Amino acid sequence: MSSLDRLDLKQLRVFRALLQERNLSRVASQMGLTQQAVSGHLRKLRDVFADRLFIRSGHGMVPTAKAEQLASKLEQVFTGLESLLEQPEFHPATFNGVYTVCATDYAQSVVLPELLSRIREKAPDLKIIVRNFERDDLDQFMSSGEIDLALTFPTFIPSHYPYQVLFQEHHVCVTGKRSQLSEQIFSVTQVAALPQLVVSPSRANLRGSHDNWFEERGVKRNVVMSVPFFSAAADCVKATDMIAFLPSRLLPDERLTPLKLSEMPPGFEVIAAWHSRSSHDPLHCWILDLLLELFPQPVSQKKNNSEKS
Predict the structure, then answer these.
(1) Three-state SS annotation for 100-156
(2) Which residue range forms the structural domain that includes residue 32?
(3) The CATH number of the domain where 234 resides is what?
(4) Backbone angles phi and psi of 244, in degrees to 5
(5) If pLDDT is split at 50, 70 and 90, which confidence band does 299 have?
């Protein structure tokens, strides 16, 4: 066992106190220890440093030359330890660093413009990297620190991730502007039979977010096309006989017209999610505060999953 392995913080605190007080009983009182315990720590220190360190005299404890030589180094050790506990002040206006956000193309259109505008205003030296959302590799990228924040939907993130709800959203059923379908009201069964386009940002397939909703009502929707981005959906719907369910904040769109349905699918949440290791990072917390300013919610509707951090 090395000499360093035989040292602990309490022994160093006793050493420091003895250098200051030069009295064993006062050190014991200050540290809430018995004199016997202080003497025990001193014995271990003498063994580690191969020196008596303190010699009893009529006026208390006199440090040896070795102890006096170690005094300045000991203060450096405690200064370094105290610095570990210091919380550096965060000043957005002068902060220089890089922050990486991954976002669905929906969030890139609806959330990012306002967020980036506020960041540029308050933290002009902060550099932002925006990446497309990659569901399958999200956990790996966030665990490694390659991604700091994900702007997405709850079903797209690992269940143990902390997150902050930005707002509630809902889909609107739309068709091309020139479609004759806009003149009637459709039941769930009728709308399920119409040719539909779904947006599948995480995986290339013909599954949509409302498949279960249709199935619960005993019907199977007629999905005939899938695109990876919401930005591609409007032109595809406009140019065909298809319908689509698009988030309301992407509308109105001059290429599209809403359909009237007798029943609408449930709404959903748009969230900001992160890895728990970032929960107390000053920059990250500041970004979350900006998002709360931009997307405030009534207290009764606020939801934060950060207790899992």
Answers:
(1) EEEECHHHHHHCHHHHHHHHHHHCCCEEEEEEECCCCCHHHHHHCCCCCEEEECHHH
(2) 4-85
(3) 3.40.190.10
(4) -155, 155
(5) low
pTM above 0.90, yes or no: no
| DSSP per residue, 40-99 | HHHHHHHHHHTS--EEEETTEEEEPHHHHHHHHHHHHHHHHHHHHH------GGG--EEE
CA dihedral 138, 144, 145, 151 (to 10 degrees): 10
pLDDT tier for residue 3 given thresholds of 50, 70 and 90: low
Last residue of a domain, one of 85, 119, 153: 85
User: What would you report as the CA-atom Rg of the chain, rounded to the nearest whole angstrom?
Assistant: 32
Query: What SS3 class is residue 280?
Result: coil
Number of H helices, E strands in the chain: 11, 14
Whether 185 and 46 share a structural domain? no
Asked if residue 261 and residue 181 are part of one domain, the reply reads yes
Do residues 24 and 64 share a domain? yes
| 29 CB neighbour count, 10 Å cutoff | 14
Please say which residue of 66, 85, 104 terminates a domain. Answer: 85
pLDDT, tens digit, 9 for 90 and up, residues 251-265: 999 999 999 999 999
177 lies in the same domain as 34 = no
Residue 266 CB partners (closer than 8 Å, separation 6+):
170, 213
Same domain, 73 and 116: no
Bridge partners of 243, per DSSP, are 175, 196
Q: For the domain that residue 63 is a member of, what is the CATH number?
A: 1.10.10.10
pLDDT tens track for 169-225: 999 999 999 888 888 899 999 999 999 999 987 677 888 889 999 999 999 999 999
Is the peptide bond prior to 124 cis by the omega test (within 30 degrees of 0)? no
The tens digit of pLDDT for each residue in 97-117 reads: 999 999 999 999 999 999 999
